[in-house]
Specification:
about 190 residues; mainly alpha; Four Helix Bundle (Hemerythrin (Met), subunit A)
């Protein structure tokens, strides 16, 4: 199992919910409204799992080790991980702000929800691809074997805060309920 395989597995789960969001956007066009419950669930997932579970691992385990070895993620990503995270957060906030009126079919809110959902999907899919195609191979090449083993163990360690660990499992269940509801294939994850 590769050093960053848990992050790749989590990417698959994030992509699953991005596929759900894309399906919601498609439904917006035909139904002329946002279905509020699944859209709210997706927002909860993106804020909870993507931010608090997945990105936290990257920031606390991956980035410090890379920087200590003189490896710059910006070489592959074109910007800092924190810049991407903030840009994503702004799109999620905008989707949430448009959610209530978009659920009532308000045209302007539907456009805003759709615009930010599509931008968020594009942002995350491009970012995931850059990590998997460039950043993770760079890590595999640059880190010595002992450091790879430490990183892999740290990434696979359950969260320190038991409530946070339980929340991450809850987000996985939420992602699977969304996929089932929207008829989107479930991701195969290592969790």
């Amino acid at each position: 199992m590769k050093t960053t395989s848990i992050l790749v597995s989590e990417h698959h789960l994030i992509e699953q919910v991005l596929n759900c969001l894309e399906k919601m956007v498609d439904r917006c066009a035909s139904q002329r409204r946002v279905e509020i419950a699944p859209a709210r669930d997706a927002i909860v997932f993106f804020r909870g799992f993507t931010e608090r579970c997945h990105c936290a691992k990257e920031e606390t385990e991956l980035l410090p080790r890379m920087r200590a070895m003189g490896v710059s993620p910006e070489q592959c990503l074109g910007c800092s991980m924190l810049e991407r995270r903030e840009e994503g957060r702004l799109h999620v906030d905008a989707m949430e702000a448009a959610l209530e009126p978009a659920s009532r079919g308000e045209s302007r809110a539907l456009k805003e929800f759709t615009k930010h959902a599509q931008a968020y999907i594009k942002l995350l899919l491009e970012y995931i691809a850059k990590q998997e195609d460039c950043l993770f191979p760079m890590i595999a090449q640059a880190l010595p074997g002992t450091e790879k083993a430490r990183l892999k163990a740290a990434l696979n360690t359950p969260y320190d805060d038991s409530d946070e660990g339980n929340a991450c499992d809850t987000y996985i269940e939420l992602a699977n309920r969304l996929a089932d509801y929207l008829d989107v294939p479930r991701a195969v994850t290592a969790n």
